[in-house]
Amino acid sequence: MTLTQLRRRDDGSTLPLIFFYSVLSIVLVLGVVAATSLYLERKRLFTLADGAALVGAESFDLDDVGLTPEGPRAGLHPEQIKRAVADYVADNSRKEFTQLAVEDASTHDGRSATVTLSAR
């Protein structure tokens, strides 16, 4: 076979490659966009949970502050934490979360608040 005959047989072979790489690049871009969106939503939910935990940790009454050998300590009550967290989430959760729920709002040691949120 001569060089001219080989060139004639090679006509049109780049079209499938262009199509394949175009589809591959579109899938790759859509995957990166979806992963970025999921990451940002997770960060927003963590920010809301951090704020709710702070509100829960500050939900004590001044009458509940007692003196300990380490200094003054506030006594937290799970009922107060649940009310404060529910109010905070209701006031600060915009329509960016679907099916936002407070899974847990309590205290394990009476000194700190733990908040678990979930959303779809």
Gap between N and C termini: 64 Å
* Number of beta-strand segments: 4
Q: Count up the domains.
A: 1
Give Rg in angstroms.
29 Å
CA-based shape: rod-shaped
Helical residue percent?
55-70%
Describe the model.
The protein is α+β, with helices and mostly antiparallel strands and 120 residues long. The chain has one domain. It is 55% helix and 16% strand. The protein contains 3 helices and 4 strands, in the order H-H-E-E-H-E-E. The strands form 2 sheets. Strands 1-2 form a two-stranded antiparallel sheet. Strand 3 and strand 4 form a beta hairpin. Helix 2 crosses helix 3. It is rod-shaped, with a radius of gyration of 29 Å. The termini are far apart. The mean pLDDT is 86.
